[in-house]
UniProtKB/TrEMBL annotation, chain A:
This is Phosphatidylinositol glycan anchor biosynthesis class G (EMM blood group). Belongs to the PIGG/PIGN/PIGO family. PIGG subfamily. InterPro entries: Alkaline_phosphatase_core_sf (IPR017850), Phosphodiest/P_Trfase (IPR002591), PIG-G_N (IPR037674), PIGG/GPI7 (IPR039527), PIGG/GPI7_C (IPR045687). Pathway: Glycolipid biosynthesis; glycosylphosphatidylinositol-anchor biosynthesis. Residues 43-53 have a biased composition (Pro residues). The keyword Transport does not apply. The lineage of its organism: Eukaryota, Metazoa, Chordata, Craniata, Vertebrata. The chain crosses the membrane at residues 434-453, 473-492, 504-528, 700-715, 727-746, 758-775, 842-861, 881-903, 924-947, 959-979. Residues 37-58 are annotated as: Disordered.
Automatic annotation (TrEMBL), chain B:
The keyword Zinc does not apply. The lineage of its organism: Eukaryota, Metazoa, Chordata, Craniata, Vertebrata. Its main location: endoplasmic reticulum. It comes from the Eukaryota. It is a multi-pass membrane protein. This is Phosphatidylinositol glycan anchor biosynthesis class F. Pathway: Glycolipid biosynthesis; glycosylphosphatidylinositol-anchor biosynthesis. GO terms for biological process: GPI anchor biosynthetic process.
Amino acid sequence: MRLRSGVLAAGCLLLQALGVAIFLRGFFPLAVRARPRGGPRGESPPEPAPPGPGTVSNWTKIPPPLFKKVVIVLIDALRDDFVFGSKGKQFMPYTTQVIEKGTSYSFIAEAKPPTVTMPRIKALMTGSIPGFIDVVVNLNSPALLDDNLIWQAKTAGKRIIFYGDDTWVKLFPKHFVEYDGTTSFFVSDFTEVDDNVTRHLDRVLKREDWDLLILHYLGLDHIGHVTGPNSPLVGPKLREMDNILKKIHISLLSKEGEASLPSLLVVCGDHGMSETGSHGGSSEGEVHTPLLFISSAFEKRSGPLTQPELVQQTDLASTLAVGLGLPISRNSVGNLILPVVGGKTMREQLRFLHLNGFQLSRLLEENTPAYEKDPGYEQFKIAEKSHGNWIKLYLEGNNSEILMNLGKKVLKQYLEALKTLSSSLSKQVAQYDMYSMMVGTVIIMEVLLLLLLSVPKALSSRAEFEVPLSPSLFSLLFYLMCLVLCAVHVIVCTSAESLCYFCSMSWLTALGVMMLISALMCGILSAIGKILENSRLPVKNPVVSSSSWSEVDVLMLAGTIGHVLSLGASSFIEEEHQTWYFLINTLCLALCQELCRNHFLLKECDPQHGTSLKQNFDGIREASDCKNIDVPASGNSKLDKVASSAEFIKGSDKWLSLASPWIILICCRLLRSLNRTGVQWAHRPDFGHWLTSSEHKSELSFLAAVSLVMIFFLVQRRCSLVSKIAMALGLLGVYSYRAAIGNVVFPWQHDSKDISKGITEARFVFVFVLGIVFTGTKDLLKSQVISADSSVKSTGLWEVYSGLVLLAALLFRPHNLPVLVFCLLIQTMMTKYIWRPLKFDAAQITIMHYWFGQAFFYFQGNSNGIATVDVSAGFVGLESYVEIPAIFLTAFATYAGPLLWAIHLLCYLSSEVSRNAAAVGHGCFCYALMRSIPVAIYIVLVTGLRYHLFIWSVFSPKLLYEGVHVFITAAICLFFTAMDQNHSQKVQD
Amino acid sequence: MRDAEVRRLWAANLLCAASVVLTAVVPAFFLDGFTVLGTHLTWLCVCSVCVGTLNVILCLVLKPSLSPKRSSLGNKISRFLKCCIYFFMSCILFHAIIVLYGAPLIESVTETFLFAVLLSTFTTLQCLCMLGPNIQAWIRVFSKNGATSIWENSLQITTICSILGAWFGAFPIPLDWDRPWQVWPISCSLGATFGYMAGLIIAPLWIHWNRKQLTYKSR
Ligand SMILES: [Zn+2]
Ligand SMILES: [Zn+2]
């Protein structure tokens, strides 16, 4: 079966996407330990029975609550130094006073990455560590199904009131007797989100009809996102929070009667913020949050203030459960924070610790087959036994002095055991489904090998590849491999103790995957066989292999390899944008050198030199002719290049051509300072932050307007008249959309403050986007069905491209519009002044496009962390969250850079078809290869580094980015192939 | 004749390499607290000046440019001025390229500029010494098969090695090791220096190994 290289590439990428999907499914297991709540083990354990007959403990029920009312004040993105540091002393005087002199306990709670709001709320309320994949489904937070504190409280008949971020309302639907959710949709809103919470406070504090009050303040997080942790806005916000805490605390104190139980005020943050004000990663500022317990039940602090102790964020759930007299959530891995219950009797304290330990050991039993050998479990059993002894002594009414000392010993044993248990449980969260991962990796590597082996054939001028499918399908090897793999599958799946995704698939699907693997293997083997057969032919041509490599080629090869290797180091992943900027800069300089040489060779080139070159190339051609091998396209173009330099463009064009690499370099430098991304230098001031700050709204408006006009001029030149008008109206719509949601201002209405969601404006633009894309598609279809005119086709392609540009203009934040302008500008200049005159071949052009696409991915402000995904793009033009369009829009906005460059590549290559008929096929193949090399190597690297310290914060987000990129590239390649198909049909007609 | 010339090349190159090493060691005796990493800017100045003077002296002594044309004093002065302008322009150009590569535009201008001066010393100054302010000759030397003497071959190799060294020197900057040599522009300037020294040593070796193939066209 003969396949064209485009088809081969698209097919390979689809298979690779399948492999990536299986790998990701194994790497990010979905909800490993989610078990339905309220199963048969609803009972709580009794106190450990004292040894020997006779004495029986009468404590079998869950202990009664320690606090009457609990108020949880969660301040989003509250970093530890905002309370305990100098900022706290300055702006939170009341809280500082309570910490230093009042009845309170203060801790630093460590949040596990990803430090994003929803997983952190889950961690706080369930005590478990949510899996990484929770971040991805952060967009639409469905109801929390795990056992959690809120559910327990509701079941126990507690009345819960909630005000704040509506993530809670989605996580705990119908759990609150009263609630008011605030959406965090408008990140630039600093006051209203908090006023929405505070306005209920006075009324609620007067009332008596609630047991648990939860307040989630978002303002600080918004300030952090927009202006960073050191902005002057943080101080007043902290002061506001301090006043609120004061109000709550005083009100709680005034309510406390002599007889009733005391109340508890908990102040915590869900996560901190980094030095740039964002969060999601694992820097010190992001993971350290303050945790304050304030209650009159505690003893007054005596002695000097010490540095707050470090606890885990998950500890809050167990502590609150004990405090409220509820069973501890089953999936909780947290430890009871002992000082909180320190005022109770020894017997009660031991009872609480036993409950906690029992729950942890239960969890361990359910998750590890060999739980009995776990040191934590053993420690717990020993502690339990001594606890029993202690109770025996207690019930016998022994001397209190000895009892106290003995009790302290048991306490210590319990604490040790709890610590070991929870650490071994926390480790288990990162359990990988190795079998699925291996299957995915095997598919990906096989596809990569196949692609690499088919390079020489696929890039030949015929751009065809012989796939020995039928002979290999009937070979004995194929059946043998299928059989062996199936046997392995059965063995692995029957012996595996843990959950395995690939085993849980239906056996028919599994069989299909096995057959796919063996077929790929047979294909690879036969390809290798063919290559060996060819190489046995005696004639070897050393000239082709060495001298036909120009500096640009060397750079491209070295750059690709270097980039792939750099993925093994976490800092290089964090700073991957630097790699790409560095590479495209070097590429521009190499292009400049190439242009200079072309230009000056014309003057300098002595005839002798020229002829010798020509002879050299003729020699190549002869040699390859006699070998009956297709002449490599690069050799051809080299020859053209030398020949073409004679009629090299003259006059001003020549100088423009020489200057264009420098202009591109300057553009890239400007873009680089527009959005600083990454980790190390992200806190440096950049132009984007300057623009988005509220004082520079008029500058931003001006820039946005100028950018939109520029976009129009750059894009319209190859569109039809209708599309031009549509484009102009669409860009106007973009501006009015941004004005409607308050990002930019109209010059004639400075003070109107009515911020809306801009639904109408956005939908207006969507209509034009669809219109332009539809016109383009119509042209494409027309060129395929009716006329053989290639100009219609290129207009059609360009219209599809300009439709996408319009969509990107709508989705990009206004300060990012220059990115789009520069993207179009660089593409125009490259096409006109560099690629056309230098006559690069399709493969080289594709690699350059890919590099620039990658660089633009970072230019638009993306990074390899999740915090930079602009989720707000998913809400453009939508009333509320709708899953499919939101995901599509967010993905488009995130990958707009690579996507626009890829479509531009298609536009360029299909206009080059006259020069090289197989250009589109070559381009598609190279694009697929460029994508599959990093993804395949990265997957192997990640598998090797899966116990690395930064696996969650650095490597996993990057893996997600890579995976999504593969899916997008597969779609692009399919589009390429569809375009290629039309052409080849036309040629045959 | 040829062997003698190769020997002279060896001597000149080793002298240059030794001078670079000495600039790292000797100033410590005169200046308090001098280290290459600690007082990097001083070292950059010292190294550029030393290598620059040495190059000029070698050029005057060895006269590799083979152009003993008698020229008037005025001509000489104009050539010298031209050289100075070219050198300064190359410093500016290198500075611009470094900024385009992402060096901060306003902060640490001194560091960037001194690094540009160092790079110019390693590359442009040599070219000026050997070829004079003659752009055509430069283009000839740096196009394929353009070298006409072992000196020009050596020039090619050291220039390319210095620039490659600086290029590779940028790699460790993003790593989060927090080492003193990761501060801008230390790793790059060290890379350039090591590249230059490597080039000085590689050039005669390369000429030695390829002496059969090297047939220079007479001019
Ligand atoms: Zn948050
Ligand atoms: Zn946030």
